[in-house]
Design brief:
Helix content is 43%, strand content 0%. The protein is mainly alpha-helical and 79 residues long. The termini are far apart. 3% of the residues are buried.
């Protein structure tokens, strides 16, 4: 039996992330749950446009979210 005396000695071997990356389906569900009639944010894109165009843009939004997820860092403009 191997006893670890110092927490710094412990190694972590994660084979899978603790939280899986979002699937295209999850992104589509999240867009569908956005409340309508909300004022647009800094990007000036109305909520209704996201919802109406989801069939066309959900794939691109998913690619963006996946890219950010893998880098584990938000773009500076989003902070």
């Amino acid at each position: 039996m191997h006893v670890v005396k110092d927490v710094g000695q412990a190694e972590t071997h994660a084979t899978e992330p603790l939280v899986p990356e979002p699937s295209p389906f999850v992104v589509e569900l999240a867009i569908g749950k956005i409340k309508s009639q909300k004022s647009p944010g800094n990007e000036e894109i109305p909520t209704e446009l996201f919802k109406a165009g989801c069939g066309t843009i959900c794939g691109e939004i998913h690619k963006l979210i996946t890219y950010i997820w893998k880098k584990e860092k938000l773009p500076e403009g989003w902070k």
